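Quick one:
INPUT:
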């Protein structure tokens, strides 16, 4: 009897491994090109379960690197389930919803929760957040402009999305550092910088998640009966019973927002500075007409950065992706970063081109029910922070490649030194 393991491509590079992603960009891109050349759908062994995590080593997963295949799977949510897990390693169901909220759900639960929380992403709410994004971005540059050097990730890129998400949810400012530390633990628990000293990763994850949930429950209680306009107030005082969330739903949605909304936008901004430093010609084009170039420049940053490297789905029935037979129960990992370098879709895919158009990237996920709810807000944050940078720190440059996050799931930079002429 043939099993999925019999399909393993032992001689091909394996992007499911963390070590694949902490190498020079040229090596990573060369290996992604190998996977494209191999047909764009290959089967790979799962990474070993890190020491200290009591989970079973799984049977492996199909890896999709072609743009067209990822579009196809994204649209077929009835066939490819999110509820079985969004990362390649199988984790307990109670972990899934606690840490992943609606992105680890299928319809109809997913559709209902997304509809309810969409109250935070209406044109009216986003217009209100626009002023906040501008104010926060200006304050961030105010704090660093006299220093002449920064850790661009910690001092600039991370600060904007963290404050915007916390403001959206009505979290008090004194809790921002607490939220920042705990989201780092959740997203990078196996990275040496963030791993617990005792090696007990599961306990560290549960503790971080539990304490964030407790914070959200306190915030929610404080909003009951009030007239606040933040999203938590709207959800806690919904006039329609169907729009009420359970405490568990609200807590898991908050964890999703502060992890996804903070980490992904943070990394897009960080990669953006690195790309601009490495491509001074493109920087000059954008600087010459910021407002006109910003829409395409931001999309190009998201395309190349692809802050979420991949998402997993699980086949619910026997099916096909292109000509490849996929059995019920097989895992399928959609590598967005690889698809955003697909040469059949993007001419000169490794070039950073701030005027690239069309740019049908999947940096916010593929089309379908799980497309990023916060895509518009992320675009706004990236635009505003780079406007402030171009206007006030025009010669800022990264001075190193940066310290990469040890993760196959998030394409992250933990630290990125940068220098500029101080503004006194």
């Amino acid at each position: 009897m043939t099993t999925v393991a019999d399909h393993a491509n032992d001689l091909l590079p394996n992007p499911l491994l963390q070590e694949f992603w902490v190498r020079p960009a040229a090596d990573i891109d060369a290996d992604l090109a190998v996977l494209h050349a191999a047909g764009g759908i290959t089967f790979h062994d799962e990474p070993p379960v890190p020491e200290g995590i009591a989970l079973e080593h799984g049977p492996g997963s199909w890896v999709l690197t072609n743009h067209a295949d990822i579009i196809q799977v994204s649209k077929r949510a009835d066939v490819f389930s999110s509820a079985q897990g969004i990362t390649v390693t199988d984790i307990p169901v109670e972990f899934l919803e606690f840490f992943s909220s609606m992105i680890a759900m299928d319809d109809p639960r997913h559709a209902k929760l997304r509809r309810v929380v969409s109250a935070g992403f209406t044109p009216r709410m986003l217009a209100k957040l626009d002023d906040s994004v501008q104010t926060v971005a200006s304050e961030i540059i105010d704090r660093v402009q006299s220093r002449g050097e920064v850790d661009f990730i910690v001092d600039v890129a991370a600060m904007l999305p963290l404050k915007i998400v916390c403001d959206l949810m009505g979290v008090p400012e004194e809790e921002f550092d607490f939220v920042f530390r705990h989201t780092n633990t959740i997203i990078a628990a196996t990275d040496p910088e963030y791993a617990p000293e005792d090696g007990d990763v599961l306990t560290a994850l549960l503790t971080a998640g539990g304490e964030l949930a407790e914070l959200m429950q306190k915030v929610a209680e404080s909003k009951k009966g009030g007239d606040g306009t933040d999203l938590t107030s709207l959800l806690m005082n919904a006039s329609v019973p169907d729009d009420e969330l359970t405490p568990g739903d609200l807590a898991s949605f908050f964890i999703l927002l502060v992890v996804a909304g903070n980490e992904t936008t943070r990394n897009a901004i960080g990669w953006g500075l690195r790309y601009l430093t490495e491509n001074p010609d493109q920087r000059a084009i954008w600087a010459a007409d910021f407002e006109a170039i910003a829409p395409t420049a931001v999309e190009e940053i998201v395309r190349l950065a692809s802050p979420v490297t991949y998402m997993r789905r699980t086949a619910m029935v026997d099916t096909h992706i292109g000509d490849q037979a996929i059995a019920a129960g097989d895992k399928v990992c959609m590598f967005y970063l690889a698809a955003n370098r697909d040469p059949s879709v993007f001419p000169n895919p490794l070039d950073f081109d701030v005027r690239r158009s069309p740019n049908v990237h999947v940096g916010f996920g593929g089309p379908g029910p799980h497309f990023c709810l916060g895509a518009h807000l992320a675009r706004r944050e990236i635009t505003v922070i780079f406007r402030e940078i171009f206007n006030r720190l025009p010669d800022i440059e990264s001075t190193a490649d940066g310290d990469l996050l040890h993760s196959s799931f998030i394409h992250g930079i933990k630290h990125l030194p940068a220098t500029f002429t101080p503004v006194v």
